[in-house]
Amino acid sequence: MNYSLKSIPEREAKPRERGFTMAMDKGLSVREVEDFLEVAGDYVDIVKLGWGTSYVSPNLQKKLDVYKAAGIPTYFGGTLFEAFIIRDQFDDYRRILDKYNMTFAEVSDGSIELPHEVKCDYISKLSEQVTVLSEVGSKDAEKIIPPYMWIKLMRAELEAGAWKVIGEAREGGNVGLFRSTGEVRSGLVEEILTEIPFEKILWEAPQKAQQVWFIKLLGANVNLGNIAPNEVIPLETIRLGLRGDTFMHFLDVEKPC
Amino acid sequence: MNYSLKSIPEREAKPRERGFTMAMDKGLSVREVEDFLEVAGDYVDIVKLGWGTSYVSPNLQKKLDVYKAAGIPTYFGGTLFEAFIIRDQFDDYRRILDKYNMTFAEVSDGSIELPHEVKCDYISKLSEQVTVLSEVGSKDAEKIIPPYMWIKLMRAELEAGAWKVIGEAREGGNVGLFRSTGEVRSGLVEEILTEIPFEKILWEAPQKAQQVWFIKLLGANVNLGNIAPNEVIPLETIRLGLRGDTFMHFLDVEKPC
Amino acid sequence: MNYSLKSIPEREAKPRERGFTMAMDKGLSVREVEDFLEVAGDYVDIVKLGWGTSYVSPNLQKKLDVYKAAGIPTYFGGTLFEAFIIRDQFDDYRRILDKYNMTFAEVSDGSIELPHEVKCDYISKLSEQVTVLSEVGSKDAEKIIPPYMWIKLMRAELEAGAWKVIGEAREGGNVGLFRSTGEVRSGLVEEILTEIPFEKILWEAPQKAQQVWFIKLLGANVNLGNIAPNEVIPLETIRLGLRGDTFMHFLDVEKPC
């Protein structure tokens, strides 16, 4: 930190299980990745190449090299996994993970319908090859999953080998954990947390109001994802109580007047 | 493409009449243009320097050189044409197109009132000098043009020499083709398409929901414009069915389960 | 300017008391600062490092050097001042201003409660060290300050030594001067202007509709702040009547048809 302030919440050090930040790269240039890492390299823990953007990105290998050199792991968005599955190309997907030396992968069913045992089977198989993040929640705003089912699905996916489970929100933050207005389904989150340890969950929270909500409920070291690259520094200040939104939340000092 | 996926919609090759993407530069630096072209150079067909931004951009000539070297044509936004017309400086405008070696220009009447024969006359004159895109639709949310009139205007402007006609939406996507909420005026678009060939129309669709709507209706190779530079890669994935929004739309394979 | 247009509003020259633009840097890289200044260096007058972002920005000193070399003064957001005050670290804050050779500082009470004479006392003390901008208005959407009180507060802060007073809007433009919808509290602004000279006020107006509103009411040379770096060029075109929103506003020429 550049100067000293009292009563700042303590952050976990890297590599961390709690308090990590997943950012989404939806088509950065090599230089933009370098710029992003210059400012946020200490604060971002993992980067998702959003949905199928890796298919069309001409600079893919170079970008992966830059992230790797900086010690930031990357993975392809779950929609890409689904694009291979729906085409019956799972073996091709495994080969692509190898080709690009990926050490993480996401298993999701946001756009396709998979019997849950089949999904868990994919998690198991991929876990032998890479570290798996699995995602719960539909991209379809009309598919409402009740809380007990979120818990059941998350537990089964962790048992199948997922390192962490992701609560779905999309880039826009308007499905899954969130109502179409972007408002958090708070009862849902609270019920999930009675059963699943919070360090095992990565909450997608692309909008500032959502980040604030999770940080106020779960503290500075909640795992948050789908953060835009230029919002990682702002998010870090929200975690530390240095933006208006959480300014008073972490303070235990007496006011001077 | 970086790897092989079955059942991906075929895209027209450049230079193309269908499926092209117009992006809007509203003040990029030279390096930002280079970054943009590194990732999206294969997907963007033409770049508009939005409204009067070229007047105040200190790096104008350098940027035009970078676009030119990459083979991406550029043009000044229609509002600039109107700024010259309302000041009775049409000849100055023609000299500026020459000075900057522009090969495209836009003729519009979004902010001024022009009798339609006068507008068509400008299209004819400029067509002798450059390739003309003409724009139909007002920037004024209260000026509702009925469908038969859109068709009549578009047809006359194509006959006057316009290469393509643009359906107005502004940067925000809330006028012309769209209701103030950003919702597409779908009956209007469908009626227009009964009379005007779709490759002659460039639809302004700055918002993701609008892009999805046009791609679902008109396919991967619809012409779309007013795309933000960092949204060209995301748009390409929507065209290809590799983002949740159009994921199932282009698939003819059987689901594996 | 790159070419000549008649009837363009005259802009004050730098350094200026009127018509200046304050931009907000919320975590730019060094290269992004260079890019920003390449395109907007002539149009931006001062840059705020938003709230506590300077605490976590690893490139802080390098960025300050780049801004300084370009002749653009910078200051730390008012929330950082408040973070030091609430921790009873005012002397530390003064040392940090010295350490980074800051020549401007902001005094605000958007997130803390300060008796107004205490706030004015901070303005007086800091005025001996740097040029002070003071901010009126709460970040709390529920704290409505009546117009006569805005005037009383602004006047007292100017008398205490503030160079200019800032009308609070936050990054999102939804508090203080604005309703939660982003709509301008127009009666408030008009009443303030009956008592406080407009060159002494810097209006925070991050949203385009707000910028347009102020420019239509107060002209091309109103002081506006909290502008995103990539919106400084668009804002300059709005000031000059070269974007649709203010296109007709500054024109005194006759229409050609």
Automatic annotation (TrEMBL), chains A, B, C:
<dbReference type="InterPro" id="IPR036112">
    <property type="entry name" value="ComA_synth_sf"/>
</dbReference>
<dbReference type="InterPro" id="IPR003830">
    <property type="entry name" value="ComA_synth"/>
</dbReference>
<keyword id="KW-0456">Lyase</keyword>
<dbReference type="Pfam" id="PF02679">
    <property type="entry name" value="ComA"/>
</dbReference>
<comment type="similarity">
    <text>Belongs to the phosphosulfolactate synthase family.</text>
</comment>
<protein>
    <submittedName>
        <fullName>Phosphosulfolactate synthase</fullName>
        <ecNumber>4.4.1.19</ecNumber>
    </submittedName>
</protein>
<dbReference type="GO" id="GO:0043817">
    <property type="term" value="F:phosphosulfolactate synthase activity"/>
</dbReference>
<dbReference type="InterPro" id="IPR013785">
    <property type="entry name" value="Aldolase_TIM"/>
</dbReference>
